[in-house]
């Protein structure tokens, strides 16, 4: 799919072959009846096993209940308990559990560098024996590949970010989907004049800031600029990147009052309650918002370009894979679930219950908006650079960007100082491929 990109942060090589998973062969010695006739033994009932599944997707509990129920149709002896943790607390809780020798049997793996770090630390079971892994492209598998070249997770869904908008509010003020950046700003001006908050936005949670920058920045520096950074032909202090940070600062008149204290829950509430007309956000929020307000009339549009010859874009990446805890007491059963995740049955559930593009080829969405999101991701995508390429370092360059933008919105840093901090972080670990 066009949304995927090779040449990720870590030099990874997908496993050269995928072997069929081994299964236990339970046999018994035939018994003999009193009359001497041999009878075939009755199959011994399989022992019930309960697995735990960790995740940061608290919003997806109902969807995973349906996914697990589908899995149990062919694996009735395996129970799976979906135990999500708030997304901002998940990484810490997972690392603490794994370091103590515990953790869930099935792990929802953060993509790219974060997942590779857990694999490199020995916490994950390689999936080289899982049947069906050959359905994924090498680029897709990069999201869950360790530095040893082995694959440690089954990629489940793609994510993309774009601009959600309220169709009813747009119609009320005779607004249409903007095709240029100037049109977007004029739209925001019209909304503000009519006392409608243009963008549901907050800088309280850092991940929102890197996501917003990653979504909007290609409109400023184009789709090829990040390739220049990767090749050493530019860096984070280059004028193009500085301009992308200035753009974030320039948008503050269109944000809610007291936006520095607003987090994701507040942003969502503003949008679904129709207090705000637009929101830069990932496609995963669609299902959540539709459930929160079934009457909400929403749609999406790609980020329009600033330059006349520019292209509209959405930002994409593989958002999470499922892996197996290397210390699970029930690895064989957990690996059966990994195999299920490679099937079109799961792919159909993912696209229609999670309302996100599936990683399984040939699976179409029933929902027209999900289909639109998937089409944009296939045709006009650019990679989420902070996740795919710059999520390493200690602290990571991604988190440095987030903290620095927060500082900018608190008027403690200038856009130039933000980019200086980001470059300092990258210099500690990133080596361009010249």
UniProtKB/TrEMBL annotation:
Transmembrane segments: none annotated. Keywords: Signal. Residues 1-28 form the signal peptide. It comes from the Bacteria. Residues 28-48 are annotated as: Disordered. The keyword Signal applies. The keyword Transcription regulation does not apply. Coiled coil: none annotated. Residues 28-45 have a biased composition (Low complexity). Pfam families: SBP_bac_1. PANTHER family: ARABINOSE-BINDING PROTEIN-RELATED. This is Extracellular solute-binding protein.
């Amino acid at each position: 799919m066009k949304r995927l990109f090779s040449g990720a942060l870590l030099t990874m090589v997908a496993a050269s072959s995928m072997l069929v998973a081994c299964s236990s062969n339970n046999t018994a010695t035939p018994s003999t009846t009193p009359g001497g006739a041999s009878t075939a033994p009755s199959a011994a009932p399989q022992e019930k096993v309960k697995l735990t599944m960790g995740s940061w997707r608290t919003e997806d509990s109902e969807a995973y209940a349906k996914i697990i129920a589908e899995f149990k149709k062919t694996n009735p002896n395996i129970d799976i308990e979906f135990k999500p943790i708030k997304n901002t607390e998940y990484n810490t809780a997972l690392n603490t559990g794994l370091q103590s020798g515990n953790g869930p049997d099935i792990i929802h793996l953060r993509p790219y560098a974060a997942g590779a770090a857990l694999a490199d630390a020995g916490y994950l079971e390689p999936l080289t024996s899982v049947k069906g892994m050959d359905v994924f492209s090498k680029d897709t598998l990069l999201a869950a590949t360790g530095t040893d070249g082995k694959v440690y997770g089954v990629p489940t869904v793609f994510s993309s970010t774009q601009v959600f908008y309220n169709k009813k509010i747009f119609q009320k003020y005779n607004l249409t989907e903007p095709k240029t950046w100037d049109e977007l700003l004029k739209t925001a001006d019209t909304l503000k004049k009519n006392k409608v908050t243009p963008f549901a936005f907050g800088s309280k949670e850092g991940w929102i800031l890197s996501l917003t920058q990653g979504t909007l920045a290609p409109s400023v520096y184009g789709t090829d600029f990040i390739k220049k950074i990767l090749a050493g032909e530019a860096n984070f202090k280059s004028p193009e990147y500085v301009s992308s940070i200035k753009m974030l600062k320039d948008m503050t008149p269109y944000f809610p009052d007291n936006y520095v204290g607003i987090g994701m829950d507040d942003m969502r509430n503003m949008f679904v309650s129709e207090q705000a007309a637009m929101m830069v956000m990932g496609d995963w929020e669609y299902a959540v918002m539709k459930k929160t307000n079934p009457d909400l009339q929403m749609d999406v549009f790609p980020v329009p370009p600033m330059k006349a010859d520019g292209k509209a874009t959405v930002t994409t990446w593989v958002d999470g894979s499922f892996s197996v805890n290397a210390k699970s007491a029930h690895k064989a059963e957990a690996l059966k679930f990994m195999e299920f995740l490679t099937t079109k049955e799961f792919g159909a559930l993912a696209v229609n219950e999670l309302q996100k593009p599936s990683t399984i080829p040939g699976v179409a969405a029933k929902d027209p908006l999900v289909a639109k999101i998937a089409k944009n991701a296939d045709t006009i995508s650019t990679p989420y650079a902070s996740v795919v390429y710059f999520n390493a370092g200690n602290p990571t360059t991604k988190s440095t960007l987030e903290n620095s933008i927060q500082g900018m919105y608190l008027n403690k840093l200038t856009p130039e100082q933000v980019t200086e901090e980001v470059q300092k972080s990258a210099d500690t670990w990133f080596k361009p491929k010249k």
